Amino acid sequence: MKAAVKDRYGPPEVVRVVDIDRPVPKTGEVLVKVRAASVNRADLDNLYARWTFLRLFLGLRRPVNRRLGADVAGVVESVGSGVTRFQVGDRVFGDLFSSSQDAFSEYVSAPEKALATISDEMSFEDAATLPHSSILALQGLQRRNGATFGAGARVLVVGASGSVGPFAVQIAKSRGAHVTGVASTAKLDFVRSLGADEVIDYTTGDYRQGGDRYDWIVDVNAHHSVLSWRNSIKPGGVYAALGGDSAAWFGQALIQGPAVTLATRKSMGMMLHWKPFDLDDIEEIKRLTSNGQIRTIIDRSFPLSDIVAALRYFDDGHSRGKVVITF
Q: Which of 97, 101, 232, 260 has a Cα at 20 to 30 A from 1?
């Protein structure tokens, strides 16, 4: 079968498509014939290993896992012993972030818990956009115990035009929030089309200094310290960073976030309660998509043979919504 691999850390150009053996499902695993996959920031993080400490887990000098890809959608080809939730022919999607991370392949063998069924009405391409990004967005809009804001809350989504942000905008709107989306000049109309009540162009000034205060802020890819946001959050409000560079990650997750939270009535820091492909949350995402409260946004599709172009397009920040790999 064809699969994308990387033999060293580096830019998208280090990735190549090669022929490898088709996997055989082990106990508790499901073999899926892949019909679509999608690109996430996590794929690039593993490729660049931009958080240097990750090399302790990914491989110090070169990647231990040569494969790439978290989001997957396809058809069950066979099942290993002990599998009870799926049978041959089922249409499924899943997040392989916590397991094999090999979605950019013609076949994948995934743990049963990493998959869920999709309806006949949903295309594989649409399904492939959901597992990683929509769950990050959903969980970024709720506390560890599931508590969230009420109707009328003011919500700010920083990075509203990429993979996670469009889902965050739509989920917040589905809960009755007044949503402001932050994006570049060229993407403001796109963010408005998602339902955002207001938009902010981050290229025209420091959007943290505008004087507005929010009940909830989702910062998809944090570039500023937690402390710099403290005047933008209402008492009892939440600032949740979903990612960022290594300095921001350590500073916010381990030092600034807990300190600010203890000193104020504001919950601020990295979202550390992320549960990849939580099945209860997946059911919520399926409900929201089926009733039209959130829609999938595919900016561009690439065949597996053009995986380098797909990764480069995503990494350069061109996409409005998701970048999909087709098979």
A: 97
